[in-house]
Amino acid sequence: MAGPRLAVRLREIRVIAAAAVFVLQLLSAASVQASQALPPGQRPGQYNRWFYPSQMPYGSIETGAANTGEAPSSGAFLTLPFMGPHYVTSLFDHCYPDYQANGRLCRWDGQVVTKSVGGPDPSFTEGYAQTPGQHDYLYYDGHDGYDYGLYYEPIAAAGPGVVKLAGWAVPSCHTCSSGLTVEIDHGNGLLSYYGHMSQIYVQKGQWVPRGMVIGRSGMTGTATGPHLHFGIYYTNGNGPVDPYGWAGSFPDPYPKDLGDLWLTGSPRFAPVPMPHVSVVAVADLADPTAIHVSWSSPGAGDTFSVNYVQQDGTMLTWMDAAGAGSAVFHGRPSQTYWFWMTVMTNLGWTDANASVAVTMPAVDHGQTQ
């Protein structure tokens, strides 16, 4: 979670291990306080934020299959910025997404939780959920986007557009704000925002299609663990919007939303072909030095790296930048070989797989008569 102007207050130090953790947290917070640059829609908070050790085991799971019950707005254009089920570790707060703690958190479906509801971390589900020390919470008050528990995994463009930012949110401070960040301008007055990345694969000014891999998640900047901060913001600086819109039984407390921005009304993965490598290696019964190898994968524009592994474990490149196909490999008698294939689609998605091991027959030198 990106958190502006954070500070950690040490109250009691009972064991050396706990002291070390707190000192590290304090140092991280100090660098954040030194920065004045904030992601779109964010402004300094007035409360002390606690540092969670990890984002991975908390929250509901975004499966790409659930239904919100909402119809998409006329301006819907989004798909999920990742593939596969992942934890949702923080929500968009409709009361009010300005990184201020007002004691209430309002979810897109109208569920409202308050400071007195939720219970100690980590036993809550969708509550306000303060820690036992009453410092901070997941699903946290004032958040202007969604956090997903991606552990150094590929991040996909949630819609087509032009890369507006690809680099450090605060160039002078790599431990501040959302760290390595990508912004994509979708040409509709909105941009999508991807924060805390460990790697970026695109450049400013580059056009990207829906579902293209733009980088890898991480925990750069001010982060509580490896995750993706995903947000939708007005390009004119008018603040954030919730891609889920508002489905509550009472008027939306946040007046700047644009309705449900998911293409189907419910979040779905991008409809792009995903790679899955298949590799087969079979000895040639007619030629004791030959192995017939074939490889393939679903996807578009697949590029393979074809490698073979020798009996001593050494991996060597056989073919590079190859398409799907087959070839005959010639080895040495009595040696065992297996084959390792990696593939990348034209959208940057990757996969890899191995063949079974094949042992070449020994040379028959004949028998003594």
Can you characterise this structure?
The longest helix is centred in the first third of the chain and has 18 residues, at 16-33. The chain contains one helix and 21 strands. The protein has one helix spanning 16-33; strands spanning 60-62, 86-90, 104-106, 112-114, 146-148, 154-156, 161-168, 180-185, 190-200, 207-208, 213-217, 228-234, 240-241, 278-283, 290-296, 303-309, 315-322, 325-330, 336-344, 350-354, 358-359. It folds into two domains: 1-272, Glucose Permease (Domain IIA) (Distorted Sandwich); 278-359, Immunoglobulins (Immunoglobulin-like, Sandwich), CATH 2.60.40. Strands 1, 2, 5, 6, 7, 8, 9, 10, 11, 12 and 13 form an eleven-stranded antiparallel sheet that branches. Strands 16, 17, 19, 20 and 21 form a five-stranded antiparallel sheet that branches. Strands 14-15-18 form a three-stranded antiparallel sheet, with no helix packed on it. 5% of the residues lie in helices and 30% in strands. It has 369 residues and is mainly beta.
Topology:
Blueprint: H1 16-33, E1 60-62, E2 86-90, E3 104-106, E4 112-114, E5 146-148, E6 154-156, E7 161-168, E8 180-185, E9 190-200, E10 207-208, E11 213-217, E12 228-234, E13 240-241, E14 278-283, E15 290-296, E16 303-309, E17 315-322, E18 325-330, E19 336-344, E20 350-354, E21 358-359
Antiparallel strand pairs: 1-2, 2-5, 3-4, 5-12, 6-11, 7-8, 7-10, 8-9, 9-11, 9-12, 12-13, 14-15, 15-18, 16-17, 16-19, 19-20, 19-21
